[in-house]
Design goal:
Low-confidence stretches: none
Order of helices and strands: HHEEEE
Strand content: 25-35%
Strand order of the largest sheet: 1-2-3-4
Shape: rod-shaped
Number of strands: 4
Helix content: 25-40%
Structural class: alpha+beta
């Protein structure tokens, strides 16, 4: 009887068992990676929304420094997203040639509890800027 080249059933089963023993611990990492990936995607999308709002607010302030007020709005493209912008005058001078200094804060958050506010427990992104008028 001639022995043919190849693997026996026992060898194949042992190899499969070794591969399974090695892969099971690695498979336990995937749920954590998926959760982190979803969190990172949410933060990136919130950042995009906040940057758009910040750019819009700064452009409006450059056109008319007194014509922009604080406010909030829901995001059109993100569910449960809320954008809150705060505009406050930090310094204003009556001196000729000196303008106003305005603080702008934009916070974008996932309003998971639906209370129309960005709570500390909710995922959020915040940007701050200062804008000056040019008299």
């Amino acid at each position: 009887m001639r022995r043919e080249a190849g693997f026996s059933l026992i060898e194949v089963l042992v190899a499969a068992l070794l591969i399974a023993v090695a892969l099971v611990p690695l498979m336990q990492l995937f749920p954590g990676l998926l959760v982190q990936d979803q969190s990172d995607e949410s933060t990136a999308r919130l950042s995009t929304v906040a940057v758009r709002q910040m750019e819009s607010t700064i452009t409006a302030l450059r056109n008319n420094i007194a014509g922009v007020a604080s406010g909030s709005a829901v995001c059109a493209d993100l569910p449960q997203c809320l954008v809150v912008s705060t505009v406050t005058t930090e310094a204003s001078s009556a001196t000729q040639g000196v303008g106003s200094l305005v603080d702008v804060t934009v916070t974008a958050c996932v309003d998971s509890n639906g209370n129309s506010a960005c709570d500390a427990t909710e995922s959020q992104v915040r940007y701050d800027a200062k804008v000056t008028s040019r008299p």
